[in-house]
From TrEMBL:
Residues 5-137 form the DAGKc domain. InterPro entries: ATP-NAD_kinase_N, Diacylglycerol/lipid_kinase, Diacylglycerol_kinase_cat_dom, Lipid_Phosphate_FormReg, NAD/diacylglycerol_kinase_sf, YegS/DAGK_C. It comes from Arthrobacter sulfonylureivorans. Keywords: ATP-binding, Kinase, Lipid biosynthesis, Lipid metabolism, Magnesium, Metal-binding, Nucleotide-binding, Phospholipid biosynthesis, Phospholipid metabolism, Transferase. This is YegS/Rv2252/BmrU family lipid kinase. SUPFAM superfamilies: NAD kinase/diacylglycerol kinase-like. Its cofactor is Mg(2+). GO terms for molecular function: kinase activity. It comes from the Bacteria. Belongs to the diacylglycerol/lipid kinase family. The keyword Transmembrane helix does not apply.
Length: 301
């Protein structure tokens, strides 16, 4: 592949709506820090996700040395769907409410410090795996962290509709509200070619370790192992589920008999009336098929 010219800029995609508007201020700090360090950067802002994605695609066609996103996991999701399979590195200034992808790499959250970390990592980017989702109509998309399809997806949907509370409390409070009415689901799965049926509270396919701003559902997951982790929680009473919940943040739930984790390469998920979420973003109704693509993304992390 032909390398980009030295003058190719860094594209900086900024989500002004992430973390209730605080990202807009962080974006200005990022641009100022890049200028202070003598780096040529192009700022990308838009009012809608689709317009921002179009802007990123346009800069990719013109030629960029890297894409630096300022925002949360939704911005990471937008970026990996633009960069998957290319040599253009992704950098992150994490300013969202979850930041689960950034948490995997212990990225700094202070904008100026994050820029310095990104520029240093840009000297030797690493290749990381991505998950790929294929919908029933044959269309596909990529995800960096976790695809969820069940209770956790319902919680995501509820949390995304709330404007308050802000920050990390939003996800656990949405979980408690959803738990009041949620019932276990019947899933049909095909795991590495082998069919199975199961009743479960939730099913997730993880490339990363955490969801919901630090809930370490698969604490041993790695981004460079060429595999995904299938995470299943069998039906539980509400008190039992609430008993497990505090242990998830420390990754100490994995020994519970209702929790099942296995290393996989492909999973097909089917359940009635369920929308799958990936990196916290809706990606389509089940059924979907998920597979891992090793080294699909260049990351300056």
């Amino acid at each position: 592949m032909t390398s980009l010219p030295p003058a190719a800029p860094i594209a900086v995609a900024i989500n002004p709506h992430a973390a209730f508007g605080t990202t807009a201020r962080a974006g200005a700090e990022v641009m100022a820090e890049l200028a202070r360090r003598g780096r040529y950067a192009v700022e990308l802002r838009a009012e809608t996700w689709s317009a921002l994605a179009d802007g990123v695609a346009g800069e990719l066609r013109r030629g960029i040395s890297a894409l630096l996103v300022v925002g949360g996991d939704g911005m990471v999701h937008l970026a990996v769907n633009a960069l998957a399979g290319t040599q253009v590195p992704l950098g992150i200034v994490p300013t969202g409410t979850g930041n689960d992808f950034a948490r995997m790499f212990n990225l700094p959250t202070e904008p100026r410090t994050a820029v310095g970390h990104f520029l240093q990592a840009l000297e030797q980017p690493r290749r990381v795996d991505l998950g790929r989702v294929t919908r029933a109509d044959g269309t596909s998309c990529w995800f960096a962290g976790v695809l969820s399809a069940g209770f956790d997806a319902a919680v995501n949907d509820r949390a995304n509709r709330w404007r308050f509370p802000r920050g990390r409390l939003r996800y656990p409070l949405a979980m408690l509200r959803e738990l009041a009415s949620f019932r276990p689901l019947r899933y049909s799965l095909v795991v590495d070619g082998v069919p199975r049926r199961t009743d479960a509270m939730l099913v997730a396919v993880a490339n990363g370790r955490s969801i919901g701003g630090g809930m370490r559902i698969v604490p041993e997951a790695a981004y460079d192992d060429g595999a995904l982790d299938l995470f299943i929680v069998s039906p539980l009473s509400r008190p039992a589920f609430l008993g497990i919940f505090p242990r998830v943040y420390a990754g100490r739930h994995t020994s519970h008999p209702a929790v099942h984790i296995e290393r996989v390469r492909t999973v097909r998920l089917e359940a009635a009336g369920v929308t799958a979420y990936a990196d916290g973003e809706p990606v389509g109704r089940l059924p979907v098929s998920v597979d891992v693509v090793p080294g699909a993304l260049s990351a300056a992390v």
